[in-house]
Design a protein that fits this description.
Blueprint lengths: L1 H44 L1 H7 L8 H22 L3 H18 L3 H14 L3 H6 L1 H11 L3 H13 L4 H15 L6 H15 L6 H18 L2 H17 L1 H6 L15 H15 L3 H6 L2 H21 L8 H10 L2 H55 L1
């Protein structure tokens, strides 16, 4: 009896499962007819050119485009879960990423990487979305990874920067970095450490612009970006801990009205003046550690010339855009844009059919799990019957 029951259930389920397979086959055929044919026309039209451009790492094919689409949709779906965003919101975000990538001639994956990091660190999708274009500009202008750009923007989100604050600061920093060796990309890569250290002084756009100037002066004397950041952190810490000893030397560390630390450039200017007056830096060697003394010596040697350069900067508005525009004119950027344009075309053509196929596969997977569960249940009952 149990064996006959199992046989009947299996036949019924197999028949239902085969109908599902048949439906999937028809859907797949429709999928191919409606979309693959259209994209194949593009493949055929550019086949000769595509073969030549393959040596540049470009892939104008349905398979490659579909693979990129699936990967991007998977990442954005996960991001949507993190942000508790609707499917419509994520679809809109994807279009913004594509539009920005095409405008600035960058890889959309770089923007997505940055947004991923922002969501992991601060969980602020609104900040990330409002800064998509700023992220793209920074990505193109600096050549840094999406992860590094994401870290930098996360730090700005942490201190409450708006989209306008972010762009104004990046414009300032871009203009300042043109005058020294501490590049915009290096700042982006070290932004969390720099902003954390300078937060003891302040984090307004003007404060962090001054941090950028200080880093250029320090880099001039120290020579290494990593060592410059280390020296910045040590110096600000020691200004706090050696406040009383510095006051005895006539160096006031804090603003008398606000009680907050004075800007590093101002304090270092007072120290440099004291060194000039005394003719040596002996008393500061006795007071500061090795890292902080590197800052003191850099300012006493290079601050005057560098500050004269900074005074001539004028209006920095558009500095980041100009750097991005310059990089967008390169062969690599233009080839990248061809790939992005093709992928976006494929995305607009294939998204709906792929969603249909995905739904069918999910349905078939459920059917298979049901079949397995019922069959196993029947086998257990059969063993009891025996």
């Amino acid at each position: 009896m149990a064996n006959r029951l199992i046989t009947a259930i299996e036949l019924r389920l197999k028949d239902g499962f085969s109908r599902g397979i048949q439906a999937a086959g028809k859907a797949s055929a429709g999928f191919a007819k409606e979309t693959i044919g259209a994209v194949n026309m593009v493949d055929n039209a550019i086949s000769g050119t595509a073969a030549k451009l393959a040596s540049f790492g470009l892939a104008f094919s349905v398979g490659a485009a579909t693979s990129d689409m699936i990967a991007l949709d998977h990442r954005l779906t996960r991001l949507g879960l993190t942000a508790k965003a609707s499917a419509a919101e994520i679809a809109h975000l994807k279009q913004e990423i594509y539009e920005t990538a095409l405008e600035l001639k960058i890889d959309p994956a770089g923007i997505t990487d940055a947004v991923d990091v922002i969501m992991e660190r601060v969980g602020d999708l609104a900040f990330a979305e409002s800064n998509i274009r700023n992220i793209g500009l920074a990505f193109q202008a600096t050549g840094e990874s999406g992860e590094a750009i994401g870290k930098a923007f996360s730090s700005l989100a942490d201190i409450g920067y708006s989209e306008e604050d972010t762009l104004r600061f990046l414009d300032n920093l871009s203009a300042i970095s043109d005058k020294g060796a501490f590049t915009l990309g290096v700042f982006a890569d070290n932004a969390p450490e720099i902003i954390s250290a300078y937060s003891q002084i302040g984090t307004s756009v003007d404060d962090l612009t001054n941090a950028g100037k200080a880093l250029q002066i320090m880099m001039k004397g120290i020579g290494s970006p990593d060592e410059t950041v280390t020296a910045l952190r040590s110096t600000i810490t020691e200004l706090n801990t050696k406040e009383d000893a510095l006051l005895k030397l006539g160096i006031r560390v804090r603003n008398q009205e606000t009680g907050k630390l004075r800007d590093l450039n101002e304090v270092m200017a007072d120290i440099a003046a004291r060194i000039d007056l005394k003719g040596n830096a002996k008393e500061f060697f006795e007071l500061f550690g090795a890292e902080s003394m590197r800052t003191v010596l850099a300012f006493s040697t290079h601050a005057k010339d560098m500050n004269a350069v900074f005074e001539k900067l004028g209006d920095t508005t558009g500095s980041l855009q100009r750097k991005s525009d310059t990089m967008a004119k390169t062969m690599q950027s233009n080839l990248r844009n061809l790939q992005t344009a093709f992928n976006r075309f494929a995305d607009s053509s294939l998204t709906k059919p792929l969603a249909t196929v995905t739904d069918l596969l999910n349905h078939l997977n459920t059917g298979y799990e049901t079949l397995t569960g019922i069959t196993e249940g029947c086998m257990v009952r059969d063993s009891y019957a025996d």
